[in-house]
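Q: How would the structure tokens look for this protein?
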Amino acid sequence: MPTNIAIPALDGAGEIPAYRAAPQGTPRGAVIVIPEIFGVNDGIAAKCDGWAELGYLSLAPDLFWRFAPGEELDPDVEAEFKQAIDNMMKFDPDDGVKDIEALIKYIRATERVEKVGVVGFCLGGRLAYMVAARTDADASVGYYGVMIDQMLNEAHAIARPLLLHVPTADHFVGPEAQRAMHEALDPHPRVTLYDYEGLDHGFAATSGNRRDEAGAQLADRRTRDFFAENIG
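A: Here is the predicted structure in token form.
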């Protein structure tokens, strides 16, 4: 696993392993990359490195450190995909939000970077929504977040900008869930949803069978512009 730093958990239960990538010079802001269910693998590390190249301090937490620390899984390998699903079923998303909050506090207090954004994928996309509702992160982005439609009662607490990328052919987030998200969130003044017609879950993966090049580039450009506007 490419983690290279550990950050104390808020509940004192241990330390959260994370991957850290730093820019040359003073960071323009910080971006926390929240992984999918496949751990802090090379693809997630590459996303952090990309943000560092753009001038941001970037960290990615190992979400499953409490019960499956250090696992790197490949979604294109069936057995590893099943293991990732098992890990997700054991995972407490409330703990995940607290761990991301620990990273936010660490970045501001220890790294001395005030503006912090989060960007998450799949499970991380759901956590990005929860972070927007429950923490003081300056901006949040979710790619193909799962189960957001079941947490729309928290939307009233979103006080800072949130951007959600929604592939319309997502086989984990069906049409009814997407419709509920649009109905609840389109009127929200701090939330923006972008639909990606015909694209499926995982379309912005760094590599592998799921990636759609045109869709990934469009979504990533929108994310870069969003963070440039909201965190520097």
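Residues 5-230 form a domain with the Rossmann fold fold (CATH 3.40.50.1820).

The CA atoms of residues 121 and 143 lie 5 Å apart.

Upvote if useful.
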